Amino acid sequence: MSDQVIAIIFFVAIIALTLGITAWASRQNKDTSHHYVAGGEIKGWQNGLAISGDYLSAASFLGIAGAIALTGFSGFYLSIGFLVAYLVVLLLVAEPLRNMGKYTLADMLASRFNASSVRSVSALSTITISMFYMIAQLNGSGALIGLLLGLPYWFSVIVIGILMTVYVVAGGMVATTWIQIIKALLLIAGTLTLSILVLARYGFNPLELFAAVENDIGREALAPPPPSGLTAGLDVISLNIALVLGTAGLPHILIRFLTVPDAKTARSSIVTATWIIGLFYLLTPILGYGAALIVGQDAIANANAAGNLAAPQLAEVLGGPIFFAFISAVAFSTIVAVVAGLVVAASSAFAHDFYTNVIRGGQATEQEQFRAARYAAIGISVAAILLALPAESFNVAFLVALAFAVAASANVPVILLTIFWPRFNTVGAVTGMLVGLISAVVLVLLSPNVLTGPNPEPPLTPIIPIDAIFPLTSPALVSVPLGFLGCYLGTIFGGRGAEREREQGLQVSYDEIRVRANTGITNIEQEIQAAAPAEEPRTT
Amino acid sequence: MERQDEWVRVERTQAFKDLVARKKGFIIPATIFFFVFYFGLPILAAFTTVLNVKVLGPLTLAYVYAFAQFAMTWILMHLYVSRANRWDDLVDQARREAAGEAEGAS
Questions:
Q1: pLDDT at B9 over 60
Q2: What are phi and psi of A135, to 5 degrees?
């Protein structure tokens, strides 16, 4: 019981700190631009920390440590894929997005396509992805807090739900960004301390830790599982496609590039984020194997079949109740920060894309837009809470994998082709997004995640006792190519051709897109005139 | 129509052409390389056992390959960023060239 009291003190301290930040930020949250993207005034290193905060969710901190503890090398795929994904973001997506976007992902698509259908479908996919991700986080947090503090699942979900609503409605993106930064620092401190405590038992030599794994757990924990047929192999590839491409389509990560003033700052924020995220993932084998050796695989699996409590359990053995409470509070701050970022992404898609630009045709006043943004945040939060309440028995990993697969299938093809394909048209964009979105969701519904059969292997829990129709647990191998194919076929067969669309004002010329994406020039007449007078003194 | 001309004017500057050529020259090979290197690990691991050998004490080749992916990410990132920061000058130059041309035309 005293352990729980200490844990509650830490939880309350974190809640007080984040609410303090929100109160401070609410004074800056004065218009739609601040609410959606913190006025585009975030500095590179701040945004880098905030990206790390947005990215290192409960799935990273709790999920990967547990996966490595229970399955060994296979769990490390998540770390590799989540990191290499930043090369896709950096090389292909981040700068054009910064140069072409304003508040949301749909803004970037709308800078080329002047069609409300493109905006609506993009808003739909943003809301769908964010919703799956939010349900996963709420679900994970409910289970975590339930086990740590003995509180019922519904109570935890509602408490976190109310917190995320307050952060976003009162503090907008400014509060969300600072909560991410604090959370990233807490998470780094917690993970580093935990890793040092583990390594201290093995002479501060990671190779000794690996040797202990080989001796006590077995060689197979250090190598990928031996090949076991085509389906299992394709499933590994499919998972890795979703991991490496999904990030470039996650709305709550992409909108972080709109909070900085220019492409250069977007780049420098990725450098900061990639170092923090990479170093964090490099520590995950120490946490995972440390937990397997020091806590024991049986004890981990008994506490949670997926191993999600491995890191807090390890903290308890190594550092006693106070450190256990600290690590649990870090996990809690991780979850509230990520859900706040997701609420911003989903509610901007609804308020800015759907309400302001589609329903009101872009004619809403600043005050109406600001009010819509706040109401949408409340609406999205309530919807996420209501959907998370009955989802208690769902597998968290399945929901996160679904979010990544939908992001990779629905958003990534359309983002890349909008930037790089001159012939792309509105029909192609809408078809591609819908095909990617629907195929990813339907394939997951037909997969062993949902059609589990009567006796699924843990950590899957039985949901529908029918054998799976689609054999892979991750749909990306099929749904990502389908997303690209939808874009291609829609463009070739469904449209009037990019040229006709330009004449009709449905899309701007590709010359403009090419120049905008590469230079960040938005208001061409003004910027060229501004450059002109400066020309003379410089050349003489 | 006027608006479109301005964009085309920027697009036709030598500086913009240089910018796009240099970007392509780095991004296309780098992207192909990291996708091949990245998918090499799961493909080899899922269909062969070549990565299961121990190479460094208890460390398997799979882990060495995995850590190499971290190194690759950081190295490619810094190679790109150091180049891209230099390319920013070309953007200003393209703006000035287009502006100079506009002056001359009017």
A1: yes
A2: -60, -40
Please judge whether A519 and B38 are an interchain contact, meaning their C-beta atoms are less than 8 angstroms apart: no
State both tokens at A28: 């800056």
A2-94+102-112+124-394, which class in CATH?
mainly alpha
Instruction: Please tell me which of the candidates B42, B56, B94 has its beta carbon nearest to residue A237.
Output: B42
Residue B84 falls inside a structural domain = yes
Residue A539 has pLDDT above 50, yes or no: no
d(CA A395, CA A236): 19
Predicted local confidence at residue A462, as pLDDT: 66
Q: What is the pLDDT of residue B1?
A: 46
Task: Assess contact for A173 and A401: CB atoms under 8 A.
Answer: no
As for the ipTM of the complex, it is 0.90
Mean pLDDT, residues A412-435: 93
Residue B106 lies in a domain: no
> What total of structural domains would you count in chain B?
1
Q: In terms of residue numbers, what domain contains B53?
A: 2-100
> B19 vs A518: CB contact, 8 Å cut-off?
yes
**Residue ranges in A446-520 assigned as alpha helix (H):** 476-489, 497-503, 510-519
Asked if residue B30 belongs to a domain, the reply is yes
In a domain, B39, yes or no: yes
- pLDDT for the residue numbered A124: 92
> What's the distance, CA A137 to chain centroid?
10
CB contact residues (below 8 A), chain B span 74-103, against chain A = 74, 76-78, 80-81, 84-85, 88, 91-92, 94-96, 98-100, 102-103
Mean pLDDT taken over chain A: 86
Distance between CA atoms of residues A453 and A468, nearest Å: 7
Determine if residue A462 is left, alpha or beta; phi over 0 gives left, psi from -120 to 50 gives alpha, anything else beta.
beta
- Extract the tokens encoding B78: 């810094």
Give, in order, the Cα–Cα distances in Å from A40 to each of A48, A70, A514, A517.
14, 43, 23, 18
